[in-house]
Each structure stands twice: as structure tokens, then as C-alpha cells.
Amino acid sequence: MPTIFLTLYLLVWPVIVFAVLAVISRAFLGEMLEARKEGRTMI
Q1: What angle (nearest 5°) sits at the alpha carbon of residue 8, between those of residues 7 and 12?
Q2: CA gap 42, 12 in Å, rounded
Q3: pTM above 0.85, yes or no
């Protein structure tokens, strides 16, 4: 039984990391597109 929990724990981490990376990337791209539309730089 403990091996099932360990396996699930190891398989869930990549999903969580991918979700966080997707949220950060989407926010960054949205800001970049908004800045480009307004003629500003990102920095």
C-alpha cells in the first residue's frame, strides 16, 4: 500500500509544476501583449 502512495506522490508533482508554470507563462504573455499594444517595453 505505501508504494501506491509514493507512486502517486511522485506522479502528481510534475502536474502541479506544469500547472504553476502555465499560470505564470499565461500572465507573462498577457502582460507582454498588453505592453506591446500600448507601445511600452516590458522592462
Answers
A1: 120
A2: 34
A3: no
